[in-house]
Design a protein that fits this description.
With 640 residues, the protein is α/β, with parallel strands linked by helices. Helices cover 42% and strands 23% of the residues.
Length: 640
């Protein structure tokens, strides 16, 4: 047999005769297979083990410097990975069992040992040591795996008491978890049985959710997967459960649902704007024509004024919806946020009343933002109106500006945002506050807690839409009886010199009437077409009507030399206004054109490719406010 197959054994024995017998039995049973060395004391054993590591130890329990089970424990501590076979003069099974528990893998009774017994014990001890090593390694891997699992894993007994947990379980519930009951951690009035034990008697995994207190006292929403544990007789011994903290996940899901709901309402608002604005254009136009009719009595004039007032409220309502849905055009330019606050402060003092203490704190440094100053003012006025209504008996209203950096931690906590520098506008009141259910709905259009006729429910929806349109964020915190705070984040400008987009200036006010110029009006809505014709003819223009885009091209070909201006609705059947204009421009380059539409600007640009310099008239349009006539005059006076 080769040298590589030899097994090195250390015999710990202080009696030379017993040592010689063991050597003889081993050599006779397996010649040249085992190399046996002898140590006659515990000290000699330690000296040997400091130099070499045998593959097995044959250990007598009675030594000059040690005896009994303490000898097993001492040698096992010196060489924990080396299997031990005890040599004892005791034939007591209980003593043998104690030796095994102390660390030995097998035992032999002196005086009864044969060569075969010796070989059997050696083989058994080595195999058992290998199995125990594998078991220890497996247990270590299992413990490492359970410690690395980020989910909570816990076990409870039939008394609903925690008996085991992984590292994540202790990290969540606390180091004193074991021995405590599941009910100790519930936030709501639930019994521990609902989570600790599945309601079904079978072996399936049961899912549930519950709000529980973390070790720092904060309530968190946990998702649980639980399964019963049973003994060999099928009796329930406890439950093994895994849990995951889904608090942030649910928060993000709720934010997503809210955003989707807002987007749906916004899309609806943009879609209905076209038809609603056409209706308002007709109402306003005919009302203003009637107001210009000579000889109407005061009663009729008063009625017309009431109609005009109602129509303008409708137009304002439509504008509010479009602001909410981010579909209203905005004149954004570099402005200083603190200057906006200064401008709006004087209006706030008059609006909120003398019984409300107004406090304004502006940041020391400048806060340049790209914004429509009028829309930001509208946001502040809407918030102030809500605050005033929440403080019928008086209180305090504060407005503050500051600079803030949004980092990844903010984004992770709130579920939205982009890292960078922002201007923070904080608006707070000491009013009645809102409960959690109301807080979830405050930005919904038409949602209001006020009585009938006391509000449209669009104030906060409009504020939300404006802030979103400015690429910012708005958040609210409120509790019943503790007031409300809004925090508005607007991106700070990174550098100076950002200009505003070009806009068409107002027309001169001196002359709005025509001098016989001919205007080709293309409008598929008959009511709007007739109203537009009536207005233009009343102010000195000649009008040719077309019912759609194809009709407009045909009418232009028939009256090419007469037409001075095209007034086209952009969205029409057969050919839209832009397509009709392009066909006419191919025939007569330089032909002046003015487009009109009741669609929201962003929806309009999705349907028709227009550059921002194209003259465009948004419905509902007015006569007295110089919308229609001013635009027509402006385009006619423009150089060809």
């Amino acid at each position: 047999m080769s040298k590589t197959s030899e097994c090195h054994i250390l015999l710990v024995e202080d009696e030379p005769g017993d040592a010689a017998l063991i050597r003889h039995l081993l050599t006779e049973a397996a010649p040249k297979r085992y190399i046996l060395e002898v140590a006659d004391s515990l000290a000699a054993t330690k000296s040997y083990l400091d130099r070499l590591t045998p593959e097995l130890i044959l250990l007598d329990l009675t030594l000059p410097d040690s005896s009994g089970l303490e000898t097993v424990r001492a040698v096992q501590a010196l060489a924990p990975a080396v299997p031990i076979v005890v040599l004892t003069g005791h034939a007591d099974d209980e003593f043998a069992l104690n030796a095994l528990e102390a660390g030995a893998q097998d035992y032999l009774v002196k005086g009864r040992v044969t060569g075969d017994d010796l070989l059997r014990a050696i083989r058994h001890a080595r195999v058992r040591a290998q199995l125990e090593a594998r078991l220890v390694a497996s247990q270590q891997r299992q413990r490492a795996l359970l410690a690395a699992v980020p989910d909570i894993i816990v076990e409870v007994d039939t008394e609903k008491t925690y008996t085991w947990a992984n590292a994540a379980g202790f990290a969540f519930f606390g180091d004193d978890l074991l021995g405590r009951t599941a009910a100790d951690f519930f936030v709501e009035r639930q019994t521990a049985f609902e989570i600790a034990y599945p309601p079904q008697p079978g072996d399936e995994v049961v899912y549930s959710e519950s709000r529980q207190r973390r070790r720092d006292g904060k309530a968190r929403l946990l998702a649980w997967w639980s399964r019963m544990l049973k003994d060999d007789q099928g009796r329930v011994t406890g439950t093994l459960s895994t849990a995951r903290d889904i608090t942030e996940q649910r928060k993000l899901e709720e934010q997503l649902r809210q955003a989707q709901k807002m987007e749906s309402v916004g899309t609806l608002a943009g879609g209905i704007a076209h038809d609603f604005n056409n209706i308002l254009t007709a109402v306003i136009g005919y009302c203003q024509i009637s107001q210009l009719t000579p000889g109407i009595d005061e009663v009729m004039r008063g009625n017309l004024e009431q109609i005009m007032a109602a129509a303008k409220r409708g137009a304002h309502l439509t504008k509010g919806l479009l602001l909410f849905s981010r579909k209203q055009s905005s004149e954004r330019k570099p402005v200083e946020l603190n200057e906006i606050v200064v401008q709006v402060e004087k209006f706030l003092k008059r609006m909120i009343g003398e019984d409300i203490d107004l406090r304004v704190e502006r940041s020391q440094g400048e806060l340049p933002v790209l914004a429509d100053a009028h829309q930001i003012e509208q946001v502040l006025l809407n918030l102030a109106t809500n605050a005033r209504d929440a403080m019928p008996g008086g209180g305090s209203f504060s407005l503050a500006t500051s600079r803030i950096e949004l980092d990844e931690a903010f984004i992770a906590d709130h579920g939205y945002g982009k890292p960078g520098a922002y201007a923070l506008l904080s608006v707070s009141d000491s009013g009645q506050g809102m409960d959690a259910e109301t807080s979830l709905r405050v930005f919904e259009p038409f949602f209001t807690t006020k009585g009938v006729g006391q509000g449209t429910g669009l104030g906060l929806a409009v504020a939300y839409g404006i802030v979103q349109q400015h690429e910012g964020y708005i958040q609210m915190y409120s509790e019943p009886g503790k007031g409300t705070t809004f925090r508005i984040y607007l991106p700070l400008l990174a550098s100076e010199g950002q200009g505003t987009e070009g806009t068409v200036g107002p027309a001169g006010q001196a002359c709005l009437g025509g001098a016989g110029e001919t205007i080709l009006v293309a409008e598929d809505d008959a009511t709007i077409r007739r109203m537009t014709r009536a207005v233009l003819e009343k102010f000195g223009y000649r009008v040719i009507e077309a019912v759609d885009g194809e009709d407009a091209v045909a009418k232009f070909k028939a009256h090419r030399e007469e037409i001075d201006l095209l007034l086209f609705d952009l969205i029409m059947p057969r050919l839209n206004g832009k397509e009709a204009y392009d066909a006419i421009a191919a025939l007569a380059p330089g032909t002046r054109c003015l487009f009109a539409s009741g669609y929201a600007p962003d929806l309009l640009r999705q349907k028709v490719a227009l550059d921002r310099q194209t003259p465009l008239l948004y419905k509902p349009m007015s006569i007295n406010d110089n919308d229609l006539l001013a635009k027509v005059r402006q385009v006619l006076n423009r150089d060809g």
